[in-house]
Write a structure and sequence with these properties.
There is one protein chain. The chain has 529 residues and is of the alpha/beta class. The protein has four domains: 19-206, Rossmann fold (3-Layer(aba) Sandwich), CATH 3.40.50.300; 223-296; 300-356, no CATH class; 377-528, no CATH class. The protein is built from 19 helices and 18 strands. It has helices at residues 21-32, 47-58, 80-98, 104-115, 123-136, 155-174, 223-237, 243-254, 258-270, 278-281, 284-296, 300-311, 313-325, 336-343, 359-376, 378-387, 399-414, 423-438, 477-493; strands at residues 3-4, 15-16, 36-40, 63-68, 141-146, 181-186, 195-196, 205-206, 347-350, 353-356, 392-393, 396-397, 442-446, 455-462, 465-473, 498-504, 513-519, 522-528. The strands form six sheets. The protein has a six-stranded mixed β-sheet, with helices on both faces. Strand 7 and strand 8 form a beta hairpin. The relative contact order is 0.08.
Length: 529
């Protein structure tokens, strides 16, 4: 029986996985055209799985050297000679363990390099050996190098890239034998690395990989692709799930991030199914349970996310500004922070604006930033925690009561609103109050489409039910009527009959509390601070 896989490479015969054959076909076109390029995507974005699938479709027409720089230790980058020895061992492993046909004479050269004193080895000797092999090979030779990030800070690797570039240029102009295609895979965009033109030159630099073609192929997983994977699972398990509906919901949460897609499915299949029948596990309720488990994990992807924010404080400030303050950033591929955030998979380009990459990341980062706020406003978190039992009845949240108690708590703690109050301040305090109430049972996320300085929609998933709360600053009756119409339309979209509004009103004559408002066939409970 197949399983969902979230570790290293997905294998079609062993794992439920999205069909990536179209993606592989698009990449093959680049290879067939002799392109050199980089597949740079965030951690656990399916790069290695894609390379393995590409290798399978190329192996009849090419000799494919599929290498990983994880096989070279730090010592292998210390000198030019040590790199030659380490690289030669990788090539010999291709022959010994993976059945790659290497001529005996060529293999003898690599064996000699491995035994030679590193001080007597030069990079160009390694490359000349490849050229001799390529010249007599009956098939074009293609080279993949995975996990190049481990090498990008080392000058010897940049020198190696320089040789590949020179070979590419010579091939184009003089028909000199060299690799037909080279693919580098990793998080870092190697195309933008710089190296000194001469060792003694402190100012002049160039890119050793400036001959690389642009790689614009979408590697996210589509709803259609996720549905195909779930159809295969359904054929084996007969859960009765609506595969199209579940696929769309998974896509909405993950935006097609491959690890997140597989992990959500894996949690439903392995963990959620232990607490309920499979027929219930593969519903919105079961999906909400899996999301809750996922957000509570300390997996390697989330560790990488946090590490990058801690290593680059400017990135953390930018992400916090987007999430917590509704800052709108125009997409600019020349802006350093935007380039780095995209490279690490934190953001994406959404019609010319910067957006956090997916809903899972948004909620995880919200929780991280709110944890910082708990230290300064712990009373809101503790209040919600102490009062949580009165807000749940028969498995449903009494959101009206939550609004009423939050308004009372806010008034007691913060007093009257002041002019310098910002909408984000109210949102953070409300979420601090809400978090312990839904903790361990529900999830929340912020609807990015409506996040700005004046309005934010918080969506709560709790035991299979959804609650929509619009948070805003009061700007007059007309503005409020527009807001009521907007949330009414929003409820229609989510097929809900009841919604909630929380307004922060500076009018001294305001009436504080929660009132019920009927708008057509929708009911709104409007709270005013």
């Amino acid at each position: 029986m197949k399983t969902f896989n979230t570790t290293v490479v997905c294998v079609p015969s062993k794992h439920y996985m999205v069909d990536i054959s179209k993606r592989v076909s698009e990449i093959r076109k680049l290879v067939d055209n002799g392109k050199y390029f980089t597949i740079n995507r965030a951690r656990q974005y399916g790069k290695t799985t894609t390379l393995k699938a590409l290798q399978r479709v190329l192996q009849n027409d090419y000799i494919v050297l599929s290498l990983s720089f994880e096989g070279i230790t730090r010592a292998g980058y210390q000198t030019e000679g040590e790199f030659v020895k380490s690289f030669s061992r990788l090539i010999l492993d291709q022959r010994e363990f993976f059945g790659i046909s290497i001529p005996d004479k060529t293999a003898d050269f690599f064996e000699k390099f491995c035994k030679q004193d590193a001080d007597n080895l030069k990079m160009d000797e390694l490359y000349r050996t490849f050229r001799r092999w390529i010249a007599v090979s009956d098939k074009p030779i293609v080279m993949f190098i995975d996990e190049v990030d481990s090498a990008t800070n080392n000058q010897v690797f940049l020198d190696f890239l320089g040789l590949l570039r020179d070979g590419y240029i010579a091939r184009e102009s003089d028909d000199i034998p060299t690799f037909h295609s080279v693919i580098l895979a990793g998080v870092t965009d190697v195309k933008h690395l710089k190296s000194k033109i001469r060792e003694e030159d402190n100012t002049k630099e160039n890119s050793p990989w400036n001959i690389a073609a642009d790689f614009t192929i979408d590697m996210s997983l589509s709803s259609e692709g996720i549905k195909g994977m779930l159809d295969e699972y359904e054929a084996d398990h007969h859960t009765g799930m609506n595969t199209g509906e579940i696929a769309n919901m998974i896509r909405e949460y993950s935006n097609g991030y491959p690890f997140l897609v597989s992990r959500i499915c894996e949690l439903i299949d392995v963990a959620v199914s232990k607490t309920m029948p499979l027929s219930k596990a593969w519903t919105r309720y079961g999906l909400d349970e899996a999301i809750k488990m996922l957000l509570a994990e300390n997996n390697t992807l989330f560790q990488s996310l946090t590490k990058n924010l801690n290593n680059f404080p400017d990135l953390k400030v930018s992400i916090r500004s987007i999430l917590m303050e509704g800052t709108k950033l125009v997409w600019n591929p020349d802006q350093k922070n935007i380039v780095q955030m995209q490279m690490y998979g934190l953001i994406r380009n959404d019609h010319g604006s910067v957006r956090v990459a997916n809903r899972i990341f948004e909620t995880r980062l919200y929780n991280l930033f709110l944890s910082d706020e708990e230290l300064n406003n712990n009373i809101f978190f503790r209040k919600g925690d102490l009062e949580r039992n009165i807000f749940v009845k028969d498995g449903s949240l009494n959101m009206r009561l939550i609004l009423e108690h939050f308004i009372t708590t806010y008034t007691e703690v913060c007093g009257p609103l002041i002019d310098r109050f910002k909408e984000k301040d109210g949102r953070e305090l409300f979420l601090l109050y809400l978090k312990p109430i839904i903790n361990d049972t529900g999830n929340y996320y912020i609807e990015a489409q409506t996040r700005d300085q004046t309005r934010t929609d918080v969506i709560v998933d709790y035991l299979g039910q959804q609650y929509i709360i619009e948070l805003k600053i009061w700007r007059g009756e007309r503005y409020n009527a527009d807001g009521e119409k907007q949330i009414s339309d929003y409820l229609e979209y989510f097929n809900l009959s009841t919604g909630y509004m929380l307004s922060f009103n500076f009018n001294k004559k305001k009436t504080q509390g929660v009132e019920r408002v009927q708008i057509g066939d929708k009911v709104l409970f409007e709270g005013t601070v």
